[in-house]
Specification:
This protein has 87 residues and is of the alpha+beta class. Helices cover 15% and strands 34% of the residues. Strands 1-2-4-3 form a four-stranded antiparallel beta sheet, with helices on one face. Strand 1 and strand 2 form a beta hairpin.
Length: 87
């Protein structure tokens, strides 16, 4: 979601939905900026250094979510994740 919000948001959207004991998030790219959109599934970059300011999204989502995945859509992709809420 940080990419969808931080990269200028034109053509990108985010949604968060609470359902019972879970938070579902969906981030989409590409509707208005096809040059930066990609239907490819995000991957963890190799050789990420301590001082890197990006590249940690995929490992964080994998570690914290109950499930996540991508869906190619016209002009880009949607990335969704489900986080279990524990009170």
């Amino acid at each position: 979601m940080a990419d969808a919000v931080g990269e200028g948001a034109a053509g990108r959207s985010t949604r968060a939905l609470r359902a019972q004991d879970a938070l579902k998030t969906i981030a989409a790219d590409g509707r208005l900026r096809p040059a930066v959109a990609s239907p490819r599934t995000p991957v963890e970059p190799a050789g990420l250094g301590r001082e890197a300011t990006g590249g940690r999204g995929v490992p964080l989502v994998e570690a914290l979510s109950a499930a996540w995945g991508t869906l190619p859509v016209s002009g880009g992709k949607q990335v969704g994740a489900e986080f279990v809420l524990r009170w």
